[in-house]
Amino acid sequence: MRPFLRRGERELLALAFAHRGRCHLLKQDYRQVIDDTKRFIRLYEMLIDEGNLAAMHEHEKKVLSTHEPGATFIGNMPLLSAACEIANQCRERVGNGFAPKVVLEHSRKAIEGLEPLDFMVFPGLNALRAHLHVTRAHAALELERWEEAKEDAEMALACDPSFKEAEYMKQSAENEEW
């Protein structure tokens, strides 16, 4: 038997999962971002079916009150989740020496998909971008595409200057060694 929800509780629960996903992004726990976004999407679809989105968007405005007017994260959660999924899969594949060409293509698409997102609304977004660029650099090194690897390592460092793995990838590309 399902517990009876009071008015507005489902909207708050959906918003909570979306917000929690944002927090996990900051922690770089991409698996948890994916899981929380799946929960959010299920609730969001229920709210769409009920035609009851206004309350959730009002709560979102309160959460983002310190950001520029019109800032939103709710609509971008599925995109963020997909990018996290790609980041995890590509990192695993390239780490195991599988499909570097596929990794290059998929991670490029994830990076392009993240372009319109605001790192101020999604704390930790630049770390995800850096993670994707380092994964691309790793794949390019596997294929001995030195210039491409160096460019991606530099992009990773632009996103996160303290990323030691990106420094290592850049150095490897400059030395044309892997």
TrEMBL record:
SUPFAM superfamilies, A to Z: TPR-like
SMART domains membership: TPR
Write the protein's name.
KIF-binding protein
- The protein's organism comes out as Alexandrium andersonii
